[in-house]
Automatic annotation (TrEMBL):
Official protein name in the record: ABC transporter permease
Taxonomic path: Bacteria, Bacillati, Actinomycetota, Actinomycetes, Kitasatosporales
One Gene Ontology cellular component annotation held by this UniProt entry: plasma membrane
InterPro entries: ABC_transporter_permease, MetI-like, MetI-like_sf
Protein family: Belongs to the binding-protein-dependent transport system permease family.
ABC transmembrane type-1 domain mapped to chain residues: 57-270
Major location category of this protein: membrane
Organism: Streptomyces abyssalis
UniProt cross-references to SUPFAM superfamilies, sorted A to Z: MetI-like
Matching Pfam families: BPD_transp_1
Keyword NADP among record annotations: no
Keywords assigned: Cell membrane, Membrane, Transmembrane, Transmembrane helix, Transport
Length: 286
């Protein structure tokens, strides 16, 4: 009885739409006429005829490889700084966490676009020190980086998780290492990272999954076109374009299922490789 609201919501809002999407991925559907069965044509077209699809995959992978490591590194650095802070910890923790609440909104993405536009704040600051790039969002080589930096700026959520993990590490381990003459870097490499590895793994999986689904920043910065020169054409943005702009909803549904499969494979690989670097204190021999 208590589970029934959740079961009903999951069925109506998740499982049923997924089943409909799976069916539509084998059809030609334009949102207006009844879907017609085409079998595997949408999937074969994805791999053999759609060059922009491969461009969107490349952009997405590059974005993931840039944004996720930088975001986690900054989150860990901020968590380490907050752990050693004696006064004002609550204020700075809230201040650092705020971008994670606001960064996914369209309004923040539009502000970010204005900051990195030609004549924007970043352009003026760089010009003041003799670096003339122009508007990042208008340069094919810099537009993707501007989107990645917006994700890096939202480091508050993984930072809070890192901070909780740091507070669970026994202080006695650091004191014993200090007695043995270990310095700060030695303590970080031999104590902090191994003890924090489960938390690091959790953040890595979570942020990687979210990065593969990036949409709002790219949509706002490129005005929904993935420009300039398709440099910000991420997979989800191209999916949206095929489904709602071109009205090829069957093809977009096939793209969505391929994205689900890709995220599942990446997550499985992360779990598989975690056995070699994630340390759990309750493991035998740990």
């Amino acid at each position: 009885m208590f589970l029934s609201p959740w079961v009903l919501g999951a069925t109506v809002l998740t499982l049923l739409p997924m089943a409909v999407s799976l069916y539509l991925s084998f059809t030609d559907y334009n949102l207006f006429d009844p879907p017609s069965w085409v079998g595997l044509r949408n999937y074969t077209q994805m791999f053999t005829e759609d060059a922009r699809l491969y461009r969107s995959v490349g952009n997405t992978l590059l974005y993931v490889f840039i944004a996720v490591p930088l975001q986690l590194a900054l989150a860990l650095a901020a968590a380490l700084a907050l752990k050693s802070m004696r006064r004002g910890r609550s204020f700075y923790r809230s201040a650092f966490y705020a971008p994670s609440l606001l960064g996914a909104s369209m309004s923040i993405a539009l502000v970010w676009r204005a900051i990195f536009n030609d004549g924007g704040t970043v352009d003026n600051l760089l010009s003041g020190v003799g670096v003339h790039i122009g508007g990042w969002v208008n340069q094919p080589g810099w537009a993707l980086l501007s989107v990645a930096l917006l994700t890096v700026w939202q480091f508050g959520a993984p930072m809070v998780i890192f901070l909780a993990g740091l507070q669970q590490i026994p202080q006695e381990m650091y004191e014993a290492a200090a007695v043995d003459g270990a310095g700060p870097w030695r303590k970080f490499a031999s104590i902090t990272l191994p003890m924090l590895s489960p938390v690091l793994f959790f953040n890595l999986v979570l942020q990687t999954i979210q990065a593969f689904q990036v949409f709002t920043p790219a949509f706002a910065i490129s005005s929904g076109r993935g420009g300039p020169a398709d440099s910000t054409l991420f997979y989800t943005l191209y999916l949206y374009e095929r489904g709602f702009t071109s009205s090829h909803m069957g093809y977009a549904s096939a793209m969505a299922w391929m994205l689900l499969l890709a995220i599942g494979i990446v997550t499985a690989v992360l779990f598989r490789t975690s056995k070699s670097w994630v340390f759990y204190a309750n493991e035998e021999g740990g």
